[in-house]
Amino acid sequence: MSKNTKDEKEKTAAVPVVDDNAPSAEGKDKKKNNEKVLPEELSEEDKALKEGLELAVLRLSEDDTSLHKQALDHLVTEIKSATSSMTSVPKPLKFLRTHYDALKTVYESWPLTHDMKQLMADVMSVLA
Fold first, then answer.
1. Residue 19 DSSP label
2. DSSP conformational letter for 116
């Protein structure tokens, strides 16, 4: 080997190889940030489910006890129907997660003699 070819090999060996097709760490971070920033798009069916669940939580926090049974029955029905397949987090549980503290406050405000207190405790135990 001549001295020139040896110098040429050293020069080419010092050049880093960059794969343009490989995702960079910076690109992954940008993608994650974009995913978090974008609001989750809900289908019409999911929006209706979420609104129904939120209305039930609102009804439970009202003073009119005649609405409590219907609201709790609605929550129980939605939870039962959604948990028949456990391949992912059921949507009612996902939507009710943000209302757990409100439900806990309602539960604690009810007297021990409230007819629906045990059922409410059961619903909250599923959410916890």
1. -
2. T
